[in-house]
Design goal:
By secondary structure, the chain is mainly beta. It folds into 4 domains: 4-70, no CATH class; 77-175, Immunoglobulin-like (Sandwich), CATH 2.60.40.380; 178-470, Metallo-dependent phosphatases (Purple Acid Phosphatase, chain A, domain 2, 4-Layer Sandwich), CATH 3.60.21; 492-805, 6 Propeller (Neuraminidase), CATH 2.120.10. The protein is built from 11 helices and 53 strands. The strands form 12 sheets. Strands 13-12-11-23-24-25-26 form a 7-stranded mixed β-sheet. The protein starts with a helix and ends with a helix. It binds fe (ii) ion (FE2) (2 copies). Residues 188, 219, 251-253, 335, 370 line the site of one fe (ii) ion. Residues 481-805 form the BPP domain.
């Protein structure tokens, strides 16, 4: 019998680094890392006693394995994916990854047989190898295109270095006839690939295991250059891409942000992962880097476009590819929809450039992503959306193309329904199985559990437009409930005729004394389980409440000031939702917490806090230029400090003052990450706007003066809200008039003013516009109130406010 020691493989020591996060992890494990591999150590040793950071006392808190370990390459091939760089009838491409120690990379292949004896007559082909430097280190990618294969034939192959091999897996060449086949199409996978997308892609595989390929319409990952996310993308699919080829086009999330060091200007380009991970045809326009191409498969021309870049030059190329197309069917895929399913995300440039070509050359089907909802049209031609009556069902004589937006991952947006949409869904993960069989194309969309959700059939007719027959299953439409607004109630007004809106939830608890500021953490998976974090300077506590108003956590912080939050911030190799609050006693500090997604509680991650200069309030800012994280502290007398938060070698955040802003006594502040601006409210002057990058001017612009628009001062809490039209509103609490002013910052022109019943001398406010489940399906406004002793936080559904303002 093998001893446990023998069963555990000798350690694979990452070559490049034994420092930083990896080392920290091993230290935390409190074991000699040479003794065991990671998996073995963590699964076989039993309840591990972890050494604490000071290594003096121990506890049993599990430690997250850093991504650099989970996704480290080894000499054993992984991330194996079949694609086609050339003709699918006679070629097959395959790509895989290893660590950089691998010098020899080959594919062995043979015609598949019923038993194992194919190994006696294999052929081999050497790979072309390239290194890729990622945020987790160096790796090598190897690719081979096998050619001269026999059409419609099952092959067996493996990849490796002659010693470390993959398993033998199958692929099948395409037929050189227009034989029937199916393929699976998915929209954005993008987020939580391991935890959430995996079940969808596996359900799709179990429903269509013989699909010729899996087609991705962009946003495969969320962060283009995150090697861990690419690792999750492969993990989620398991062996599927080793036997089912992948066809994909890039989304906006496959674009790397590149900042010009001198000018600070940010440009975007396709991530280097793309060309390493995939081998797509190089028949696109020059410089398209395998993101624009066409491929014929059994009677269908598939055209992949890159809607992120150079859309005009692609139109010229597209016309040539459509003109010279002998195939019976034409399917086009790209990321940004021709018919967007979310308001404010219209892509009219694409529609005007590409759709006339789809019409002219009778493209049958266009497959898009990007909008994180589902929407499928009838037959549409350029401009027809303006006069399509709703409810075209059954058959249609209209010429045009069917357009689909779909989503396969868990990130969900609100739907903007239009009359020409034949079937829509919100909050639903879907995959689509499309079968082409002679003159018939059959389309079925299924939800993550395999439930049929949409269907239609297109039929080719001699000299006539395609016939579209709707085949929508009985499954009820999945859309969010309408906001619960008491419409009939007359709007109350105060003496100045300002609408007074009644809140629907009051957050307080016996310990509460003055809940001065707050922030909201949205649980993206189940928004109804989101929490509100209040900072109480008199109780010396942070309070966490659920959306039912129940206090779920109370943490001690000495005289906390303003509390703010950012999602998906890097911390010790993973991404966390970071909560920051300034502390005003026991030393001026910045305190940092993460939100535990399971318990929805705050967990301190700051080793006691980061020292700052004198502070009063402040806000977080995350640069869109280079992803750096900052906190702006406001103060009673000495302007604002911009503090850069960066991770140290031991994986914790440290703070460094990088700039001083000249501004008077201030408390409330809010940053616009996208536009690189920070707004600071001073009690006596108004609201100042500053450039938020550390290289920006230290002087601000007074964009809102006390006295304007009936603003009396002092100004306290500020909140920023914006929609996809890029219209940004700043909401300001005007204590002098006990009202809230809503002012357009960028785009938009109307100003609004409202008050909340029983909200007096309000300090902190927050506006959230996403869905927060059945109680707050369209967001809410939260504000502190000095009206009674406990200083509650009052929560008001946004539709109630919009209704009172007459803008709903
Ligand atoms: Fe997306
Ligand atoms: Fe997108």
């Amino acid at each position: 019998m093998l001893s446990i020691k023998r069963m555990i493989a000798p350690p694979t020591i990452p070559r490049d680094v034994f420092e930083g996060k990896r080392m920290t992890y091993w230290k935390k494990c409190g074991i000699a890392f040479l003794a065991f591999t990671l998996n073995a150590a963590c699964t076989l040793v039993g309840p591990t006693t972890w050494a604490h950071d000071d290594e003096n006392h121990t506890h049993e808190t599990p430690v997250k394995v850093p991504a650099g370990i989970t996704y480290a390459p080894t000499a054993v091939p992984d991330r194996i994916v079949l694609t086609w760089a050339e003709d699918p009838t006679t070629t097959q491409s395959v790509t895989w990854r290893t660590d950089t120690s691998v010098e020899t990379a080959i594919v062995e292949f043979a015609t598949a047989e019923d038993g194992p004896l194919f190994v006696n007559h294999t052929q081999e082909k050497a790979a072309k190898s390239e290194t890729l430097e990622t945020n987790l280190g160096l790796a090598k990618y190897h690719s081979v295109t096998l050619s001269g294969l026999v059409p419609n034939t099952k092959y067996v192959y493996r990849v490796g270095d002659g010693v470390n091999w993959s398993e033998w897996a199958h692929f099948i060449t395409a037929s050189d006839q227009a034989d029937p086949f199916s393929f699976v199409y998915v929209g954005d996978a993008q987020n939580d690939l391991k935890s959430h997308w995996s079940r969808l892609v596996r359900q799709a595989y179990s429903d269509a295991p013989r699909a010729a390929f899996l087609l991705h319409a962009g946003d495969l990952v969320n962060r283009a250059d995150s090697d861990a996310e690419w690792g999750e993308w492969f993990y989620a699919q398991g062996f599927i891409p080793r036997s089912t080829p992948c066809v994909a086009v890039p989304g906006n999330h496959e674009q790397s942000k590149i900042a010009n060091e001198e000018t600070g200007e940010v440009t975007r380009r396709l991530t280097n992962h793309w060309e390493r991970v995939f081998e797509f045809p190089s028949n696109g326009p020059e410089s398209s880097r395998e993101s624009v191409y066409w491929m014929d498969y059994q009677g269908v021309r598939f055209i992949g476009l890159d809607s992120n870049n150079d859309v005009e030059s692609q139109a010229v190329w597209l016309e040539k590819v459509l003109q010279d197309n002998p195939q019976n069917w034409t399917v086009v895929t790209f990321h940004h929809p021709i018919y967007s399913s979310k308001r404010g995300r219209d892509n009219s440039e694409l529609r005007d450039l590409w759709q006339p070509l789809f019409d002219k050359y009778k493209v049958d089907l266009v497959l898009n992503g990007h909008d994180h909802t589902y929407a499928r049209t009838g037959l549409m031609a350029h401009g027809s959306e303006k006069n399509v009556p709703s409810g075209i069902r059954a058959q249609s004589e209209i010429a045009g193309t069917v357009y689909v937006v779909s989503v396969s991952g868990p990130k969900m947006y609100e739907l903007g329904r239009e009359p020409y949409m034949q079937r829509v869904a919100e909050d639903t993960q879907l995959y689509q199985i499309i079968t082409v069989d002679g003159d018939e194309l059959r389309y079925v969309a299924r939800t993550a559990v395999g439930r049929p959700y949409d269907g239609f059939t297109l039929t080719k007719r001699e000299g006539k437009p395609n016939q579209l027959v709707e085949n929508v299953p009985d499954t009820p439409e999945r859309v969010r409930p309408e906001a619960d607004v008491a419409e009939a109630e007359p709007v109350k007004r105060n003496a100045d005729q300002v609408p007074v809106v009644t809140s629907s939830l009051r957050l307080t608890n016996p310990e509460a004394k003055d809940q001065d500021d707050l922030c909201v953490w949205r649980d993206k998976q189940s928004p109804e389980h989101s929490v509100i974090i209040a900072s109480d300077k008199s109780a010396n506590r942070l309070f966490v409440y659920d959306l039912e108003g129940k206090l779920t956590q109370s943490i001690e912080v000495s005289k906390p000031g303003n509390v703010d939050l950012r999602y998906d911030v890097p911390f010790q190799g993973e991404q966390i939702d970071l909560v920051a609050v300034n502390q005003r006693e026991d030393g001026f500090k910045l305190r940092l917490f993460r939100v535990d997604h399971e318990t929805r509680e705050l967990v301190a991650i700051d080793q006691g806090g980061i020292a700052t200069g004198p502070n009063y309030g402040g806000c977080l800012y995350r640069s869109a230029v280079d992803d750096r994280l900052y906190f702006f502290t406001t103060s009673k007398e000495d302007g604002c400090e911009q503090i850069e938060l960066s991770e140290t070698v031991n994986g914790f955040y440290t703070g460094k003052k990088v700039r001083h802003l000249d501004v008077g006594m201030s408390e409330g502040a809010v940053a616009d990450d996208q536009l690189g601006l920070v707004y600071v409210a001073t009690e006596t002057e108004g609201v100042w706007r500053f450039e938020a990058e550390p290289t920006g001017q230290p002087e601000g612009t007074l964009i809102l003066q006390i006295g304007d628009n009936g603003i009396q001062g002092d100004l306290e809490g500020v909140a920023l809200s914006y929609d996809d039209n890029q219209i940004r509103y700043l909401t300001v609490s005007d204590q002098g008039s006990n009202t809230f002013h809503v002012l357009p910052m960028v785009g938009g022109s109307s100003t609004y003013r409202f008050s909340i019943e029983n909200a007096e001398e309000t300090d902190g406010i927050e506006v959230v516009t996403d869905s927060f489940g059945p109680k707050f399906p369209k967001g809410f406004f939260a504000c502190h109130s000095h009206h009674d002793e406990s200083c509650p936080i009052l929560i008001t559904p946004l539709p109630s406010i919009l209704n009172a303002l007459g803008t709903n």
